[in-house]
Amino acid sequence: MLTIITNWLSDSKNWGTLLVTAPIAIIALIVAIKNYKRKSGIAINGGIGIASSSRCEENYVSHIVLENLKDRAVTIYGIFLKVGHNFYIEIEDHDDTPFILKPYETYHKKMGEILFYSVNMNKIKMDKLLRNDKVKKRIVLSTSEGKYTVPKEVKRWSPVGEFFNNYLTGVIRTNRTSHNGKDVGGNVRFIVDIKNKEGRTESIHLMPDDYQLVIFDKFNLSRECLLSKESLEIFLEEKRASNLISETSTITVYDFQDFVKEVSRHYSNKSLEAKMWSAFYYYVFGRLYTLHSNLKTKITNRRNQKNYKKRKP
Predict the structure, then answer these.
(1) CATH class assigned to 44-149
(2) Residue 257: helix, strand or coil by DSSP?
(3) So where are the chain's domains?
(4) Contact 256, 184 (CB under 8 A)
(5) What is this structure's pTM?
(6) Rounded distance, CA 271 to CA 273, Å?
(7) Per-residue pLDDT tens for 158-193?
């Protein structure tokens, strides 16, 4: 056999064939291995949030995230939080109806306050362990392939983290509201709901100058009817009396600006204007400003603690 291989390699043509086919075979092998690893075993990242509330005595799991990294579904019968070496807090029980985590799917669920924790027929306090950062906490899954301990946290990013590193970072939140399944813009003056006898509701958003547009098929709005909620209600009732709107319809008018004012009441009356800052101003001055502010806060807190201890009997 060795003689045959030696003779085959001594032929220059065979070397050329080998140089061409070998890389192709290696690539095919690598692809096959990757496909096998992608479809075999379990690989799930996960994370939890632990919160406290004045409405319950114990800290509790406020949310859970599971991220399937494989191209295969995983059957889950239970989700537990392992606290320390010997405690397993049941987060979700799927024994009766197994939960299927689909390929590359991310599962996220929020949870609220609890009554208490129990073991057998006894209540048990878990608060100290849950609040202690030195106590290791891991997500453990009961799967169709046995016990699986989630090895890593799901990598998440939030601009709030950048804010604490640089106080010049602005985290802007979008405020939205919807009515009848449709988002409503802040400049809308009135919302008119027309409900027909079949129970279907049509919502119409009106602006102060919409008398210039064709909103309704059988009549036009007037400038005067858009001056107030009451004038619009009277106008639409007159159109219904004239059979321009079905008599069986129910008409409801909302002054949307009342809602906008109520929401805006929780914010400052003065609006800020976003300005463009240079990279130097943000990354250099912003970082120095943050360090200076943190130092001042730290000194103030220490001074307050000393004053409190002096006043304490």
Answers:
(1) mainly beta
(2) helix
(3) 9-39, 44-149, 178-264
(4) yes
(5) 0.56
(6) 7
(7) 687 788 888 888 877 778 888 998 888 888 999 999
